[in-house]
Amino acid sequence: MKFATKAIHAGQEPDPTTGAVMTPIYQTSTYWQKSPGEHKGYEYSRGTNPTRTALEGCLAALENARYGLAFSSGMGATDAVMKLLRPGDEVITGDDLYGGSYRMFTKIFANYGIKFHFINLSDPETIRQYINGNTKQVWIETPTNPTMQIVDIEHIARIAKEHGLLLTVDNTFASPYLQNPIDLGADIVMHSVTKYLGGHSDVVMGALMLNDEELYAKLRFIYNACGATPGPMDSFLVLRGIKTLHLRMKAHCDNGRKIAGFLKGHPKVGKLYWPGFEDHPNHAVAKRQMRDFGGMISFTLKDAALEDTFAVASKFRVFSLAESLGGVESLVNHPVTMTHASIPKEVREKAGVADNLLRLSVGVEDIEDLLADLEAALG
Ligand SMILES: *Cc1c(COP(=O)(O)O)cnc(C)c1O
Fold this sequence. Notes:
Layout: H1 3-9, H2 50-62, E1 67-71, H3 74-82, E2 90-94, H4 99-107, E3 115-119, E4 135-141, H5 153-162, E5 166-170, H6 175-178, E6 188-192, E7 206-210, H7 213-226, H8 232-242, H9 245-263, E8 269-273, H10 283-289, E9 296-301, H11 306-313, E10 320-321, E11 331-333, H12 345-350, E12 357-361, H13 367-378
Parallel strand pairs: 2-3, 2-4, 4-5, 5-6, 10-11
Antiparallel strand pairs: 1-7, 6-7, 8-9, 9-12, 11-12
The structure holds pyridoxal-5'-phosphate.
């Protein structure tokens, strides 16, 4: 099946008891057993729930994976992957990570004796210098947040394979519509489903998609044992959201391209980050591994201090000043005080997250209204 058909149908069958075409919200924590141990495949909803099972089938199909696991948040999904590690193990990851991932690695897992190397991954060969006998995992994000660097997934996957390292790609920014890391050699794809997959800013959820059966069994064990699994109502909302993923993503990309074009050369704009520009340092890699360039754009305000940046951020009327991304509505975010506040100043400035940086999640509204709003805010 092709993408749109999978988005609408994968994992979902008419309900066996009633014929309901839409997957019902199985709002139950437990399931009747005919005699002890004799049940219909469901025992307790922390481990399995039919609405979630349908969603997990759909999530797996979208990433061309055999297995999908839904978690109660993106961080819950990340946590499960890190729990595969033991004290003394080492992880190589990027220096421009989602703030919450950086916080979890440095403030939680570092306390359990796990060592993280945060490095610039624009040249994948760099990771070889950090691989040693203790290295177990590589964790990457592409495009990165918020400076939209592109990491060559296929190249990193080749090095990871050579050394027997588990490679996870946080594919939140691209969504499965634009990029499928498993097809490029990654072992696990992680999503903050909260973003493009959910698509309507009304659910917090995460997911892992993967092919290896043994790894799936380990992660499913952690999922049930540690319990960060989503409820049936949220699973239903995401199944519903995914049905328009392909339509929304096309609109995000079209509006994103127009806004990137508008910002390029605007007198108030300093640095501009969007992988669709031919002069983006990894444009060629982006073109190869992505189907389009998405609706995430970051830029700095030329010669603006923190107060000036706040003033511009507060002037938007169609874009909402808010954290998060990937919903149908356009958002503007100030990474330094919002999404990236948990990253120390020196670390974040090294990665280009400056006081005068703004990040746009371009929604699917009429482009004329978005451009007029930007023009007014920048003016
Ligand atoms: C939001 C986000 C996360 C965390 O997901 P939650 O659903 O908020 O827990 C992880 N990675 C990226 C790139 C994100 O944007």
